[in-house]
Amino acid sequence: MESTAREIPRYTAGEYFKLTESREERTELLGGEIVAMASPNEQHQDIVLGIGSEIRTYIKSQNGSCKAMATILFIKLCLVE
Fold it and tell me: What's the start-to-end Cα distance of the chain, in Å?
């Protein structure tokens, strides 16, 4: 008996952003595969708020001009060798 594995489609970053720009579900691109992400829970949100508050306080104490934000953003990470 022959078993056949289902091939998982792979996407580029550009294809991913085009496919997901109008979707409301949270996903990320890992190794070319679109993966569903869970919504943050209460503990996660509490941690994010605490870290963001500490960062904002530090920036203000240094008269910095950047902002600490707690929001969902698209971030593209690249390896630099």
Answer: 46
Predicted model pTM: 0.51
Spatial contact of 27 and 34, defined as CB atoms under 8 Å apart: yes
- H helices of 1-81, in order, are 13-20, 42-61
Question: What's the Cα-to-Cα distance from 51 to each of 16, 38, 41, rounded to whole Å?
Answer: 30, 20, 16
Residue 52 contacts by C-beta under 8 Å, 6 or more apart in sequence?
68, 69, 70
Q: What is the pLDDT of residues 8-63, one digit of tens each?
A: 889 998 999 898 888 888 888 999 999 998 888 899 889 989 999 999 999 999 99
Length of the chain: 81
**DSSP 8-state assignment for residue 29:** E
